[in-house]
Design brief:
Layout: H1 8-27, E1 29-31, E2 38-40, H2 42-53, H3 55-73, H4 78-93, H5 95-98, H6 107-137, H7 141-172
Antiparallel strand pairs: 1-2
Helix pairs in contact: 1-2, 1-3, 2-3, 2-4, 2-7, 3-4, 4-6, 6-7
Length: about 180
Amino acid sequence: MANRIISVRTVVAIGIGAALLFVLMRFVAIPSGVPNTNLNLGIAILTVFGAIFGPIAGFLIGFIGHTLTDLTWGGVWWSWVIADAAYGLLIGLFWRFYKIEEGRFGIKGAIIFNGIQILSNLAAWALIAPSLDILIYQEPADKVFLQGIVAGSLNGAVVLILGTLLALGYSRTKVKAGTLKAE
């Protein structure tokens, strides 16, 4: 049997994660007060799936889920699609540090998880998205940096609360290595 770059389980997770991201971004969008910027509950799904399934899954979930959302709004805003994909990639790069899949996501894992998600949100929303908005769409810098900072801050708060709870809940369903004993 040939070595696989990505498992069937991960491919299924990408499909489910992208679908959940799409549904939450499209139908549970809460306006932030800043034009074209919403409180996005789907970011918690993207973060947890990236943290469990790794960088390829995180990238593809962000890319596919956000692209589908934008297509249903009438046009793809590529700078933000790329930012979501980059965010999923960044979260996924550190998946081994979180220990979610091993059932060992505790206080240390939550601190690492949230430190990385905050830095990743800053990179995606205060750097990547606004820079691409300026380069691709010639948007005014003050507008796009405000949108990016608001989006990144809201995303960080959503992941801090909802993402941490989802990661903790999922981790608690996993059996820790060495805890089963033969009778």
